[in-house]
Design brief:
The chain is an alpha+beta fold. The protein contains four helices and nine strands; from the N terminus they run αββββαβαββββα.
Length: 162
């Protein structure tokens, strides 16, 4: 065990589903690396794995949609985290609609926003997409605790792992 394992093992971030649409393709994945990264102006960053189909679609996208799931929405998390869009159309299994700029918005998310991509930043095996929120919404009443990393640890990644 390394020092970083001791530190990183204590983190339990909220998970989110990031969706992208570009050039007639849709993609989405479960993301554990995301955060607000600026107060004024408000900015949010999501980090996408370079081996993931969502990353390949997001490279050409002007906007991305970020969705928070409630803990009881593990099935949706499994669709977006445990399957690869290279083999299945994940959007046949969820309710969605087109949002600002053609973004793919999951209708049953606890909360969501569409963000215009203002910057991309390399970060090891992930690329950070810095987003400027342009549209947002969510349930009027909370569905409960948000899905966290500890709730999703047993979901086996759908994309290939080297």
């Amino acid at each position: 065990m390394t020092v970083m394992d001791v530190f990183l093992g204590r983190l339990d971030p909220d998970m989110c589903v990031v969706t992208a649409a570009a050039d007639g393709e849709r993609a989405g994945c479960l993301v554990g690396f995301s955060s607000q990264c600026s107060i004024d102006p408000v900015r949010f960053v999501v980090w996408l794995s370079e081996v993931n189909r969502t990353f390949r679609v997001a490279r050409s996208a002007d906007v991305l949609a970020v969705h928070l799931l409630a803990r009881d929405q593990r099935g949706t998390a499994e669709v977006f985290g445990g399957r690869t869009g290279d083999l299945v159309d994940k959007f046949h299994e969820v309710r969605w609609r087109a949002g600002y700029g053609g973004a793919v918005v999951l209708e049953d998310a606890e909360a969501w926003f569409v963000g215009r991509v203002v910057e991309r930043a390399a970060g090891g095996d992930h690329v950070g997409f810095v987003l400027e929120p342009v549209e947002w919404g969510g349930r009027e009443t909370s569905g409960g605790r948000l899905l966290r990393l500890a709730d999703a640890r047993t979901i086996r990644p759908g994309h290939p792992v080297d």
